[in-house]
Structure formats: C-alpha cells, structure tokens
C-alpha cells in the first residue's frame, strides 16, 4: 500500500523507481516540525489506532474485567 501511495505521490503513476523520488520516503513521513513533509506512514498509523482501540477496550468502566 505504501509503495503505491509513494508512487502516486511522486509521479502520479502506479510505480516509480528510486531515481524518480525527490526525497527519501522515511524523510517524507517525518513531521513538518522535524523537517519532513508530514505524510502519514500507514504502518505506524495503523499500529497507533489499534493500540488506541485496545486501550479503550481495557479501560472501559462498564467492562466486566474492570469491575
């Protein structure tokens, strides 16, 4: 998924090679405050959302394992 997204971001086509990319993808995924472009890394975003969901499930007040 990231490969296709990176290719569309840089060239507007389904695939691009390293020479077509203007900036390294890991640098593009950095926040703008850290000198990146602020593009969200899908793996990290997915992991964060799963952990947020897990936290909500575990800390629910009305869950049987919390009482």
UniProtKB/TrEMBL annotation:
What is the protein name for this chain? Uncharacterized protein
Phylogenetic lineage: Eukaryota, Viridiplantae, Streptophyta, Embryophyta, Tracheophyta
């Amino acid at each position: 998924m990231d490969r296709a997204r990176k290719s569309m971001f840089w060239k507007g086509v389904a695939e691009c090679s390293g020479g077509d990319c203007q900036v390294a993808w890991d640098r593009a995924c950095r926040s703008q405050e850290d000198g990146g472009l602020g593009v969200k890394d899908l793996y990290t975003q997915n992991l964060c959302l799963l952990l947020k969901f897990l936290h909500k499930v575990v800390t629910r007040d009305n869950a049987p394992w919390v009482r």
